[in-house]
Amino acid sequence: MSTPVAGADKGRWFEKTTEKGKNVAPVGGDRVTVAVRVRPMLKGEGRNPDGDGENLKAAIVGNSELNTIESYSGKVRKRDFQFDYVFTDDQYEIYDCIGRDMLKEGMAGYNVCLFAYGQTGSGKTYTVQGIPGAGIPSDLPQLATPENEGILPRLVRDLFNVVEERLEEDSTLNIKITMSFVEVYNEKVRDLLPLKPVSKGQEPPSLDIVQGADKRIEVRGLCQHTVMSAERVMQLLIQANRNRQVAETKMNECSSRSHTIMQLYVVQQYETPSVDKKDVESLITIVDLAGSERQSKTEAQGQTLAEAKYINHSLLMLGRALNSFSSKETNTHVPLRESKLTRLLSESFGGNNKTWMLATVAPSAYNFSESTSTLNYASNAKFIRNHAKQNRLERALEMKDLKEMNKKLEDKLEDLRSKSEVMRRQIERLRRENDEISGGTNMDDGAALIKIKENLKTELSRLQEDPPPNSGRVGYSRADSWIRDGSLPVSNLNNMYIGRAKVSLRNIIEQNSAFFNLPLTNESGVRVTSKATLMVKIYPVDAKGAVVTQSPAKSERGLLGQRVDFVVHIISAMNIPKEFSNNVFCEFVYKWAEKDSYKTADASGTNPKFDFRKRFAFSKMNVGLVEYFRSDNVITFMIIGT
After folding, report:
1. For 327-336, which contacts have Cβ atoms below 8 Å and span 24 or more sequence positions?
2. Considering the entire predicted model, what is its pTM?
3. Which of 146, 336, 591, 618 is most buried, taking the most CB atoms under 10 A from its CB?
4. Where are the beta strands (DSSP E) in 277-405?
């Protein structure tokens, strides 16, 4: 099972309450969980074609206790099927067994997907959405009861319950949820929640499927809606269902004519990430497929018949892809590009996902062929294994740091050159002092020692009472000016620890938070056994000071003339030498503006905590500022320990 992230609630929203949910253990490993629902017999389905005579026995019989299904041809028992779950009635029981596990894994940072498949009229949309659902009137209060709620509304409600609890438990946690909804209609991908409504009589635009830089499949131009409550999600769901293509057939008066994919993107970020508080992201995907159709049964004609051909083609391609994923042969070709549907679902089977397949079947003999095909489909899915992983956001930051390693090494080379110049000046100073002492012709050894002692006293007094000009700032400013002009002798460098680090502001240009664990370059004469580091977080905020949790990267052109606000948060340092840990502080300056410095309060200890935040605002970005932010060493930090 998954590794919980910090701030996890006490689990009441994840606890199963039905007997079936408690007794059936979740599927282990990365195998696809497969459930089948056998809907009740509808009026007229269980009788002879002429409507008279005794009731016919159901051809598909589900056993909810044993999670098995028996299929009959007439009175002959044809085949038995075993699945992870078999449901025959209760809507709540289905959510308890499937929805709670999805919610738990999703909030732990794993991508989760519910995949509903079955013949038209077998109850897919009812199981997923309940009433009202796609194409079902919302003005039937006698049907829109809690008992008729599907998996989706129950999961959304519990999702926001979990979010509310976690935010109350940890004030440093930020959670952002966005929602999107697309349909695949006649091999065209359409946004069911566009920002601008499509004019009446106008065909919605077809969107392109692309592969992003992170190898994820994306829909270009798809609208992402920020949602802050379960009520808002349900409003958008109703809006999307109104835009979805439905039509009446002989099999289903509200038959879905397109496949729909709804996604909730959940981002959980802490102000200060730590070992037990991981920033994670996850995708909760709900797939409601249009049902397979036979023209002889639906009596579809014209446009409805053309739609059925596209539906059956995409389902055929999806079936081939599932067979390839379930095959034990390692070199089996997976035809993901044969249809828009298989490409959009490429991560749901065999990819970075924990997937639940929910197949729905009709029990009547009239639908025996379609139901058997669905059961075979579901049986193959049991052999598919995914490769789900926890989506930790700091991993992306680590990769970004690695990509910048070359430029950091260049900064290190620059620091080494600066240190070399400081040492050169110190050597020259020592030579001058040596020449001055050795130059006295009438000075014996005792007088030379007295002269050295007097010089040292004078130097110590000067350093304690009369700092160099233009070094009125405390601590780092004073020490830094001495190092730059070479006036600090080696003896004083041995009495303090000085560590330096530099960072860029590229992440602010991209409007992303960045957590830095900066190695400190030792610029004093102190010998250290362990590498000291400085922990800093730099993150964007809006004009009101609120944290910007996610925003698309901006180009240089897009930033020009825009306001940019951000916060520099100096968190703590680690491994400061013990002998110089009585008084430790950090000061930082901007390149090209070193006269203005910012200093933390004094701390103590080898791992001092500063928790110092400074907000900066640039009211109007120009070309020079953009280039400045993108340079390698915009901010220089210095740690001083005495």
Report:
1. 328/383
2. 0.57
3. 336
4. 280-288, 354-361
